[in-house]
């Protein structure tokens, strides 16, 4: 029920937008997030974007882990 | 960043197994039991076979994390009565809720089979479209879900929905039920894996009172298998060091104060009230009811329907009330896989795709046994 699918915002028209989920596109309500911009990665739940994904944080976690295991 | 980075790296088998190896080496002496409270986490844990790769001394159990499963049959019965007693009503529901039985195994799907107008929607926005296309009918949306979903209901009601649209609010909130469970002393766990998408809305600060009150380690986690393993390691480290704090593994999405905009919309539309959870009982301040200024969208008031009282909320033999507290595993229930299947569910945990029993049925058994 709380399933959220990550996708990339490819179009913004007011409070509506189009999100691409690895190529599959769907109209999404953007009224719950601040300043949606084309190119943002968002979590979509039940047709609404509920939050943005911080690209740098996502990369940071993986980078730290990969470095940890390389140094082991 | 490519789309793949969002999911692919967090499913990297090598990274996951390396981390499990570290966990095995560092935490082999004691037994640990952690609870998550999200159906999507249960799906991740079971689908990716995480219980099979984790050492036997580390147990992960599922709590009441599926809002469909814990929706009280009184709310389902209310919607069914509305269909039966009022004319020209279209009931819209998420697919997950469609086959959940109330009492006597009545469900929205049975109502549909009897000829009542029930439509499955992916989003409340679809329910609004149906209302606009059917202005000679009343559209009632069965609004279910935790804090992840409640803001979409709030936002919709604030965007001038048509007059023939109303909702039955079955929304519930997570921190009060954690408070309730921890206070009961029934769940003996050493830490909680907190739900990433509920937390996206409410933020990590929303759980601070639990850390203060119960001294329980808590980690907010994302939904890829690596997220869950990292969160487990963070919990194990807290236990080892004697720390009792809230950490955030899902920092790429969850912020300390959550989604302020979504919270503001929720607070405009909803007020907290005591609510019954199926299999758990009445949990103080855990329900979201519409504020008086939104009464015209409250189907209960609009159609003057009384909330039926149902005291027996689980069928005889069904162990859902123990399953949602992590006290029983699906295969320990005598109904599991025998008379209770996703095709003919007896208990709510077998209905929703995020119910613990439905997930265990789909992906095989929960293989972790205490031995």
Helix content of chain B: 25-40%
By CATH, the architecture of chain A is named: Roll
Strand content of chain A: 35-45%
Distinct helical segment count of chain B = 17
Q: Helix and strand string of chain B, N-terminal first?
A: HHEHHEHHEHEHEHEHEHHEHEHEEHHH
> What is the total tally of β strands of chain A?
5
**CATH level 1 name of chain B:** Alpha Beta
Instruction: Please give the share of residues in helix of chain A.
Output: 10-25%
The secondary-structure class of chain A comes to alpha+beta
Name the beta content range of chain B: 15-25%
Tell me the name of the CATH homologous superfamily of chain B.
HypD, alpha/beta domain 2
Helix/strand/pairing category of chain B: alpha/beta
CATH topology tier name of chain A: SH3 type barrels
Order of strands across the biggest sheet of chain A? 3-2-1-4-5
How would you explain this protein's 3D organization?
- The complex is a heterodimer of chains A (72) and B (371).
- Chain A has one helix spanning 55-71, and strands spanning 5-13, 16-21, 24-29, 41-45, 48-52.
- Chain A is of the alpha+beta class and 72 residues long.
- Chain A has one domain: SH3 type barrels (Roll).
- In chain A, a hairpin with a 2-residue loop joins β2 (16-21) and β3 (24-29).
- The longest helix of chain A is centred in the last third of the chain and has 17 residues, at 55-71.
- The termini of chain A are far apart.
- Chain B is of the alpha/beta class.
- Chain B has one domain (17-361): Rossmann fold (3-Layer(aba) Sandwich), CATH 3.40.50.11740.
- Chain B has 17 helices and 11 strands.
- Chain B has helices spanning 3-7, 13-26, 39-47, 50-53, 67-70, 73-85, 108-113, 124-133, 150-157, 174-184, 196-202, 208-214, 225-241, 260-269, 299-302, 320-323, 356-363, and strands at 32-36, 58-62, 89-94, 117-121, 138-145, 165-171, 191-195, 218-221, 246-248, 270-277, 281-290.
- In chain B, α3 packs parallel to α17.
- Chain B starts with a helix and ends in an 8-residue tail after the last helix.
- The model of chain B is unreliable at 366-371 (pLDDT under 50).
- The A-B interface holds A 1-4, 6, 8, 15, 22, 29, 31-34, 41, 43, 45-48, 50-55, 57-59, 61-62, 65-66, 69, 72 and B 1, 3, 5-7, 9-10, 12, 14-15, 18-19, 38-40, 43, 65-68, 94, 96, 122-126, 144-146, 148-149, 151-152, 155, 159, 195-198, 200-201, 223, 226, 230, 251-254, 259-262, 265, 352, 354.
